[in-house]
């Protein structure tokens, strides 16, 4: 999996971190970020749900290419 967070769209609502805390966190400014080592989602069953929970659709989850 590939996780992209559009930092220009993210409003720091934190829904992704609440839904999948094993993949997402919030940086010092309150914006969403992927935890180190979890760039592929780490097999989290809640990854896509966390992306859907984003109120501004700043998170995109796609199949990894290559």
Report on this model:
The structure is a single chain. With 66 residues, the protein is an alpha+beta fold. The protein has one domain (2-62): 2-Layer Sandwich (Alpha-Beta Plaits), CATH 3.30.70.20. 18% of the residues lie in helices and 21% in strands. It is built from two helices and four strands; from the N terminus they run E-H-E-E-H-E. It has helices spanning 15-19, 47-53, and strands spanning 2-5, 24-26, 32-34, 59-62. Strands 1-4 form a two-stranded antiparallel sheet. Strand 2 (24-26) and strand 3 (32-34) form a beta hairpin. It is globular. The mean pLDDT is 94.
**Adjacency order of strands in the biggest sheet:** 1-4
Shape: globular
The arrangement of helices and strands along the chain is: EHEEHE
In CATH's first tier, which class applies?
Answer: Alpha Beta
* Number of domains as seen in the coordinates: 1
**What's the β-strand tally?**
4
> What is the alpha-carbon Rg in Å?
11 Å
Organism: Streptomyces olindensis
Cofactor: [3Fe-4S] cluster
Pfam family, one: Fer4_13
Domain 4Fe-4S ferredoxin-type: 1-29
Short descriptors:
alpha+beta, globular, Alpha-Beta Plaits, iron-sulfur, single chain, 66 residues, Fe-S_cluster_ET, 4Fe4S_Fe-S-bd, 3Fe-4S, 2 helices
Secondary structure elements and pairings:
Blueprint: E1 2-5, H1 15-19, E2 24-26, E3 32-34, H2 47-53, E4 59-62
Antiparallel strand pairs: 1-4, 2-3
Could you give a quick summary of the protein structure above?
This protein has helices spanning 15-19, 47-53; strands spanning 2-5, 24-26, 32-34, 59-62.
């Amino acid at each position: 999996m590939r996780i992209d967070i559009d930092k220009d769209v993210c409003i720091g609502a934190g829904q992704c971190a609440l839904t999948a805390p094993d993949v997402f966190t919030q940086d010092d400014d309150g914006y969403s970020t992927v935890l180190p080592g979890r760039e592929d989602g780490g097999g989290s069953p809640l990854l896509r749900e966390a992306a859907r929970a984003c109120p501004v659709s700043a998170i995109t989850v796609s199949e990894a290419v290559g």
